[in-house]
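Can't paste images in this forum, so I'm doing it all in text. The chain is below; anyone willing to post the predicted structure tokens underneath?
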Amino acid sequence: MTYMTRAIKTNLTISSLIILVSCNAISYTELYPYFKNAVVGVPDIEINDEYIKNKKYSFIRTRFGKSATAIFSLSSINNNIYTWVNGESELLKTYNGKVIYVNGVGMANMQIHNFEYFSPKISKENAYYQIQFKDPGAFISQSATYSVNYENNLLKLDEKFSSNPIRWHRSNKYLFDSRNMPSRTEQYINPNLPLLEIDFYFLYK
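Text version of the structure:
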């Protein structure tokens, strides 16, 4: 059975908090932690040697902007597609670190098609993807260009993408270790959501 753990916190909006205070429903002192989370963001999940030692399976730490942070455990590997799950039955699939499928994570349900040539050694100057979104449903084309460099002795792949019909233009970053395994990624997976950061922890036992 796959071990799963979750630590996710969501924010109340600042406007909602102000309404509560104005109605004398709650004091500023009681609301301070919520104001802090709304402005500064929720605390990150600390990953140290002890935490890793107690994990049975490889895992990832995800963070959506300031609003949510969570741990997903590796569920399966099939044709280099890594499936990650958490205790809320949310699911992520990655291919060489690139998110290609999401179900339930931050309401960003999506799937990328024709992703197979993406890798840390990508040779194409231009790549084209088809992305399917759900809730609301949409199917868009995305073009991307790549450049390779190094950051802290890790291979860095920068991906600049655009989807002209919806004027969605962003840059993603992928870091790979000496095994060409993803170490960290920063990706935009939905035009209505903030940056998704993922740290990968592969356990070789």
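Residues 28-40 form the longest helix (13 residues). The chain is about 15% helix and 45% strand.
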